[in-house]
Amino acid sequence: MKSIYLYLFFQLICFNVFAQNKPNIILFLVDDMGWMDTSQPFGNSTMPLNKQFHTPNMERMAKQGVLFSNAYVNAVCTPTRTSLITGSSSARTHVTNWTSIHANEQTDFPDSVLKTPDWNVNGLSTGANQQSFLIKKPLPQILKEAGYFTIHVGKAHWGSLGTSGSDPTELGFIVNIAGSSLGHPQSYLGTDNYGNLPGKTTFNAVPDLQQFYGKDIFLTEALTQKAKKAMDYPIQHQKPFFLSLCHYAVHLPIQKDNRFVDRYIKAGLDPTEAAYASLIEGMDKSLGDIMDFLEKKGIAKNTIIIFMSDNGGLANTGRGGKPNTQNYPLRGGKGSAYEGGIRVPLMVKWPGVTKPNQRTNQYVMVEDFFPSVLEMAAIKEVDKSTIRDGKSYVPLLKNVSYADTTRALIFHYPHRWTKNENEAIAWTSAIRLGSWKLIYLMKKKQLELYNLASDLSETQNLAQTHPNIVAQLAKKLGEELRSRSAQMPIWKATGKQVAWPDEL
After folding, report:
1. What CATH code is carried by the domain that includes residue 46?
2. For the whole prediction, is pTM greater than 0.85?
3. How far is it, in rounded angstroms, from Cα 192 to Cα 161?
4. How many domains does the chain contain in total?
5. Do 352 and 447 fall into the same domain?
């Protein structure tokens, strides 16, 4: 009997040592941040819009790790967020649009010509929820079972109210702070109780932040303080942790952060853009505070930080200035199949693995996050019930010159996001293969072809001059969509499905 206890004690000691040697992993996710919304250039040079922002901590992180200049996500938030923790593309999960706070509620803008397919309006789920993507073991659950202390702070938006996907603790997070089915805050202001005011509260009021009520503490700062406090427990108990710090910033409503806004007013920005820039700088301060916290606690050398945005920057409506110029030289913005809607900032800092001040031009996709984190944590997944589309980018972190022009990235948005349909902001699919990009505009029954190496702004449609490449990419896009059981819209006049891109 004594030998059994000694064996169990030895196993426990071995597990604790093994767990402590695993790296901590932080996902620092920003909402609606564009590729150009930073003083840290993600292009090949500093551009005019880079000079509009002040993000010294993004610059600091870029100097310490690897910057991805060609990182892609989905055009709106929930599809990106679900792909992050499932490793599957939105075309496969059928979570192709943002989910409503309310269960079973359609979120498309009404359209007289096309009908939205029967997509998973409730997001993802770990149980048998109607119209949701069933995932038995999301990434946080896998990490939890491998010994990680899992923490979620901020925006969740994986599923609708009343479903398991709306509750981060149902997805494998041990701690959840301010994460629910809501997709944006009612207010960023502590003096407004973040929306929790008697008689004025809506479903968008941010939960769990009562200690800041009535105080002049901006939402981004409150979440940062909560994240630091949540990390104290695993640090004290020498457990590896996974922190998903998902800011509500910089999503609407655009409210000024008084700590930073004067800089932008003095620079001559209009009030809306000045407030937006202050949201960006507040987010950047949070990044710096987290990095400082890790250094103060002596764990920075064993902590990986992954910085990214969930979709391109808002440009079609809601911003100051002329519409669809806020992401220039990228075309379009959030909701669009053009680069402004799907190309985002991504950086990874992994001490001891990534070399300082490195940049890679290899394109990667949001679903790559899942296998990358598993490889970082040295976890071999045993659950094969879910088909993954992601590919680990850990090799890129070790060798930034690695290139693969044979991989195809697939984007699928069979929806209408808002009233304004211009700039490929509704009813689209797209594929990137090497430098070529093909966009399928479903309602127009039209294919557009661009060479991103020579035309980053997608101003020259080469479909007429390169029909062979159009045919090749349309065939590949159609095959990929069909293999993932992607859904297509329906013509209201005939009741027939929109054609696949290779059927035009």
Report:
1. 3.40.720.10
2. yes
3. 23
4. 2
5. no
